[in-house]
Structures are given as structure tokens and as C-alpha cells.
Amino acid sequence: MTMPQVRSWHTVIQEIATDGGPVVDEPLVKVAVAAIIANPYAGAYSESLQELIDGSVELSRELVARCIAALGGREAESCGKGAIVGIAGEQEHGVACLTTPFGDAMREGIGGTGWVTSTTKVAGAGATLDVPLAYKRALFVREFYDTISITLPNGPRPDEIAVIAAVASRGRVHHRVGGLAKADAIGDGLR
Q1: In this structure, are strands 117-122 and 78-85 parallel, antiparallel, or unpaired?
Q2: Which residues contact 70 (CB under 8 A, 6 or more apart)?
Q3: Residue 191, pLDDT score
Q4: 189 pLDDT band (50/70/90 cuts)?
């Protein structure tokens, strides 16, 4: 399995110290990294999407490594994934890039055990995608429910796919709506 050739890389970093309340000691840092790759299935229907699935493991590893580097020494506590498929492709092409092999490599890269949230869509260059984030060990830990938005000015072109990994260093800075606390999670992937 080899990583697909990447035409361009894009990194978005957000650092949030307050969101209407007092400034917090530990800011929330959210990172999204996108790789724009060729879509081998653009313009034609194919029953098998194995080429995208096979290339997703190495792509996930590189995306996660870049996310972790952009966190600047902070631990990745939550994660998510997404894809924007150029208009000559299908939404299913983006889903193929994000299946279990991609998610397994992402979990391995950040020490996660939970289900990795995702989103996909078909759009043109300049599109924005809101990538969902959730706690890396238990999906139901509400303080980590969040998103990071990424806008890609030069892609995807019609025959490309933007594949995105996202991580965050903590939950929302002023979370206070209850739900399962991180300290109470059992780490079964859900709770």
C-alpha cells in the first residue's frame, strides 16, 4: 500500500482561550490538515473503490503526523475526518478514503479507541467543510463535541479529492451542558 500522490497540503490551526467566559489557563487548540489527491474514479462509475481504500492508510498516517506536529507538543484528545470530492466524482469516493483502514491508522496515531466522526461532500474549489470532532476514547463525552472548519482555495479540482484529518487538544473551553465527563468514560468506544 502506497500513499497517493499529494498535489497540495493545507493546515488550519485555531487557538481558543475564551468563548464568552473567562480566559482559560489551557487554550483549546484545533488543527485540520488536508491533502489534495487525484481521484482515479472521477468521471466514471466503478463498482470497486479499492484503490482509494488501499491508499488511505499511509495517507492517514501522514495527515495525523502533520496534525500532531501542528499541535505544538500538546496531546491530541479528540479527532475527526472528512473529505471534499471534486464535482467529477461521487460522495462515495470520499467515503472510500475514510473507511476503517483510515480510522484505524488515525486511532493508532493518537492513542484513540473510539469511533472517529466524519463528514463528506461533493463540491468545487473554495468549498468549506466543517469536520466534526469527538473524544478519542469514548464518543459520548459531550465536552468534546465540536468542529473545525477548513476552506481550500485551490481545490479540489473536479478530478480530485481533499482528504482531511482533524484533532484538538481538549474539549470546548467553557463546556457546561452536562453529559458524560471524560473522567467517567470507560473507553469502550462509546461511553
Answers
A1: parallel
A2: 11, 13, 31, 33
A3: 87
A4: confident
Query: 191 lies in a domain?
Result: no
Domain with residue 37: its CATH number is 3.30.1330.110
The DSSP 8-state label assigned to residue 138 in this structure reads B
Contacts (Cβ under 8 Å, ≥6 apart) of 134: 78, 79, 80, 114, 115, 116, 117, 141, 144, 145
Q: Please give the model's pTM, rounded to 2 decimal places.
A: 0.97
Residue 74 near residue 41 (C-beta atoms within 8 A): no
Burial of 183 (0-12, 13-18, 19+ CB in 10 A): exposed
Q: Which of 168, 115, 118, 120 is nearest to 140 (CA)?
A: 115
Give the domain range for residue 131.
6-184
Q: Which residue has the cell 483502514?
A: 101
pLDDT at residue 122, as a whole number: 98
Q: Domain for residue 1, yes or no?
A: no
pLDDT bucket at 186, cuts 50 / 70 / 90:
confident
By C-alpha distance, which of 61, 157, 136 is closest to 101? Answer: 61
Question: Would you say 95 and 121 are in contact if contact means Cβ atoms under 8 Å apart?
Answer: no
